[in-house]
Design brief:
Layout lengths: L3 H7 L5 H8 L6 H15 L5 E5 L5 E5 L4 E7 L5 E7 L3 H4 L16 E6 L2 E7 L8 E5 L3 E8 L2 E8 L10 E5 L2 E7 L16
Helix pairs in contact: 1-3
């Protein structure tokens, strides 16, 4: 069965080549074009993601998913755009649905990172996970989140913009949002050197 919403959302991830084709499709033919695109996606999707079920009237419904991929855009502290992807499909896997693609075992959750009062604050979206099934580990340069939710798993390794002190980290989890605060490592005082007496 054709799902305009799913097919429409998939357009957000298509390369320029396909977007060029869309711009040439007359508005009255969009539905047919999207249906063709959706059918192509079903053809190349991994078998485990395509499910069929029969309704009482004999109609067969074909569903694809879950396929999750998206991006978030925001301006960083220096006014430069920061683009982060999330989901279980890598951008390199999309290839405009013209060849088979694979879906990762884990979803990469969306996260946000900010610096405040000598600390790094990382907010990670992991809906459906229970607190007991979330593992958070940190080194001086990375934060790793591994979690299990209802029918899905999450994994993300985040490179930190500054060195931190993992032993003094704090975290909370509520309503699908994990917040981790990592104090920045204090910079070592610069060596002034030993004075040398001139004779």
């Amino acid at each position: 069965r054709f799902s305009p919403l799913l097919a429409g959302l998939s357009l957000l991830s298509l390369p320029v080549k396909i977007l060029g084709e869309i711009s040439e499709v007359p508005e009255k033919d969009w539905e047919r074009f999207l249906e063709k695109l959706f059918r192509k996606m079903v053809e190349v999707a991994p078998k485990g993601l395509v499910k069929e079920r029969k309704l009482s009237d004999g109609t067969v419904i074909r569903e694809v998913g879950p396929i999750v991929w998206g991006v978030s855009f925001k301006l960083g502290s220096e006014g430069k755009p920061v683009i982060k992807s999330f989901g279980n499909v890598k951008p390199s896997m999309l290839r405009a649905f013209t060849e088979p693609f694979t879906v990762g075992e884990h979803r990469e959750p969306l996260y946000d990172l900010s610096e405040e009062d000598g600390s790094l604050k990382i907010t990670v979206e992991i809906p459906g996970a229970s607190k007991e099934r979330i593992q958070v580990t940190a080194t001086e340069k990375t934060l790793t989140v591994n979690a299990q939710g209802k029918g899905r798993t999450y994994f993300r390794e985040i490179e930190l913009p500054a060195e931190v002190e993992p032993k003094n980290a704090r975290s909370t989890y509520a309503d699908g949002i994990l917040e981790v605060t990592l104090p920045k490592k204090e910079a070592s005082p610069k060596l002034k050197g030993e004075p040398i007496k001139i004779e």
